[in-house]
Amino acid sequence: MKKLFQQYYLNLFLTDRLFTALGLCVVLFLLKFFFAWLGDIPEIATGVLLIFFLIDVFILYRVSEGVDAKRFTSKRLSNGDENPVQIEIKNRYGFGVNVRVIDEVPFQFQLRDKDFRLHIKPAEIKSIHYNLRPTKRGEYNFGFIRAYISSPLGLISRRYNFDGAKTLPVYPSFINLGQYELMAVSHHLTAFGIKKIRKVGHSSEFDQIKNYVGGDDIRTINWKATARKGGLMVNTYTDERSQNIYCIIDKSRVMKMPFEGLSLLDYAINASVALAKVAMLKEDKAGLITVSENIGAVVPADRKSAQLGNIMNVLYKEKTRYLESNLEALYAAVRSVVKQRGLLVFFTNFESLSALQRQLPYLKRISKYHLLVVVFFENTELKALSSDPAKDVEGIYHKTIAEKFMYEKKLMVKELNAHGILAILTPPQKLTVNVINQYLALKAQQRI
Known about the structure:
By secondary structure, this protein is an alpha/beta fold. The chain has helices at residues 2-8, 16-32, 41-61, 177-185, 223-229, 264-281, 307-315, 327-337, 353-367, 380-387, 393-418, 431-444, and strands at residues 12-14, 67-72, 77-78, 83-91, 97-103, 115-120, 125-132, 138-142, 145-150, 156-162, 166-171, 205-211, 233-238, 244-250, 258-259, 262-263, 285-291, 295-302, 342-347, 371-377, 422-426. The chain has 4 domains: 12-61; 67-171, Immunoglobulin-like (Sandwich), CATH 2.60.40.10; 177-198 and 241-444, Rossmann fold; 205-238, no CATH class.
C-alpha cells in the first residue's frame, strides 16, 4: 500500500494548464450569479474537466515504465576543463510526450539551471548534452535524474526518478594531455604556444654506425669504420634519455590564491601532469614530491606505462595547507630520494623579496646537486591595476604599490639567476606551456 501511494500520489503533479482550466470554471460559476442564461454550463465545464483529468491520469499511469533515462559520463572528470555529460531518454508511451528533465549535479557546481524541456515522439530516443567544469579536485556525487512527463492533454505530469547516483573522481587536467603529447613529437609546436628550440650540436649518446647519405653531417664521419668498410660511414646519435625529471609542488598557504576558479595549487598540479607526460614521451623518468610543513607524497621517478596514473592518483586529493613550506625537510627528501643528478621543477609562489630570501639558502643547497627550476606566478590583478590610468590620489597610490610588487617579482627572478637557479615567472593560464617550453629548451641544450 505504501509503495502504491508513493508510486501514484507522490509522483503526481498538477500543471499550470489544469489550474488555468479550474480558474475558468470558477469564473463561470461567478458569472452565473449575474447571467442566468448560463444555466448548467459551469457544472458541465467542471464535469468535462474532471473527465479529462481522469483520462490524463489513466493514460500516464497505465504504463508502469513509460520512459527510461540514463546518464553517460566519463569514469573521471578533468579539473578545470569542460567535461561532457549526456542524458539519453526513451519514450515507451504510444503517444508523444512533453518532458521536463532535472539532473541533480554534484553540489560543488552550485548549479540550479540543469533543467531541460523537450518533446519526444512515440518510441523515439533523444539525448541531452551539456558540460560541467569542476574547479576542485576530489569526489563528486551525482544524484537522481528526475523526469516530469506530460501527455498531450497536459493537465498533470508524472514524475519518474531514475537512480543516477554515481561518484566520480575529479583528477588533475587530463583532457589536453593528447595535445601536449603532440607537442612532444611534433615539429609544428608554435600552434600550441611551444617555441621552436634550436639544438646546440648533437647529443653525446651514441646510437649506431650507418652508411653516409647526402645531407649527413660530415663531422660525424667514422674514419676507422670507413677504412674497414671501404665506403663512407657516419656515427648517429640520439637524444640523451632516462634523465630524472621531478615535479616538486608546494602545498602551503601561498598556493591557495584563486585565479579563474582554480587555485594556484590546481594550476601547478595540471602543469605537473602535463610535464610528466611529455617527459616520459621523451623517454625520461618522471617523479613527484609534494611539500608543505612536512614532506607529503613521494613518487620515485620512473617511465613505466602506469607511472602517469600513479602520479594522478596521488594528486587528485591533494589540498593546500595553512603553514609555510619546510624547505629544509625538502632538501633532506631530495638528497635521499633523487640519487643522481636530474631536473627539479619546483612550483611555488613568492609575493615579496623577503619571502624568497628566507627560502633561498635551501634552494641554493638543492641546486648544487641538481638542475633546479623555480616556477612562481605573476599577480595578474596587480598587473591589470598597474596598467589602468590613475584618476585620483588614491588611484596613484594603488598603482604605485602595484608597480612596486611587480618590480619585486622581477627582482626575484634576477636573484635566483644570480645563484645559478633557473626561474620562470608566469601568469597561471600560461603555466603549462611555459614549463614545457623550459623543459624542451633544457633538453635541446643538453643541460639535463
